[in-house]
Design goal:
DsbA family oxidoreductase; 11 helices; Thioredoxin-like_sf; alpha+beta; 52% helix; four-stranded mixed β-sheet; DSBA-like_thioredoxin_dom
Length: 262
């Protein structure tokens, strides 16, 4: 089974949703110890046009972006910090520094080539949310890369070039083709989608649904999973609309149905 996850480094619900998925996976693997689950991280930028660095605080940026009072923006960050604490994370929103995340995604793509996907995701999100680091700063990204075992000089050389830019844009093109307008967005086996930081039970339902379906297909095609692995890319080239995407009515109550196929 493969899970494609669209995520942005500065999206708080992406980290919360990841923790919920991890808990669901623990339960799933306890029942299916022989199941192989591959997780593929994909890039998504909430604000592709963001400046490399901003003088605004996060509450100021949110107040401006969503046209809400500054006090309401502060309250929203306090609420998110509480949600972080509930899943064992720390959000120091007063120290958070807004900036463009394109180069952070390039670093993540480089890490993926070295099988360090999860390590990169954790380190980048910790740098932004917990440590208050500017994740568009190449010096910061080099330190993050080194912290997960990437050679610092190779990271610096990559950041000074356009390397992995096409990888990042490819992920965002697929997201656009699927109608994904927000993250986190999870696609299970190229067929079943969960949008947002849903409760653990929703992720468990998605895992179980995808697993049952994959077992049926394996019995029918002799275990050839290549069509499922290519499903996301194929859907992006077509007219598919994922549950939870913009304009799709399947998430009207904030809880997506994982039965609908994409």
């Amino acid at each position: 089974m493969r899970i494609d996850i669209w995520s942005d480094v500065v999206c708080p619900f992406c980290w919360i949703g990841k923790r919920h998925l991890e808990r669901a996976l623990e339960e799933f693997r306890a029942e299916h110890p022989d199941a192989e689950v591959e997780i593929l991280w994909r890039a998504f930028q909430l604000d592709p046009n963001a400046a490399a660095e901003s003088s605004e605080t996060v509450p100021e940026m949110i107040a401006r972006k969503y046209s809400i009072p500054f006090e309401a923006a502060v309250e929203s960050q306090e609420q998110i910090a509480a949600q972080f604490e509930a899943v064992g994370l720390e959000f120091n929103w007063r120290d958070a520094k807004a900036g463009n995340t394109f180069d952070a995604h390039r670093l993540a793509a480089m890490a993926s080539d070295r099988d360090l996907d999860d390590e990169a995701d954790e380190a980048l999100k910790k740098a932004y949310f917990t440590d208050g680091r500017l994740v568009s700063d190449h010096a910061v990204l080099r330190e993050v890369g080194e912290s997960i075992g990437l050679p610092g000089d190779e990271v610096a050389a990559m950041l000074a070039s356009d390397e992995y830019s096409l990888d990042v844009r490819h992920d965002m093109t697929i997201a656009q083709g699927l109608g994904i307008s927000g993250v986190p967005f999870f696609v299970f086996d190229g067929k079943f989608a969960v949008n947002g930081a849903q409760p653990v039970a929703v992720f468990r339902q998605a895992l179980d649904t995808a697993w049952v379906e994959s077992q049926k297909e394996d019995a029918e095609d002799g275990g050839d999973a290549r069509s499922r692995e290519a499903g996301v890319e194929n859907d992006a080239a077509g007219d598919a609309t994922a549950p939870g995407a913009a304009g799709n009515p399947d998430c009207s109550d904030g809880s997506c149905s994982v039965q609908q196929q994409i």
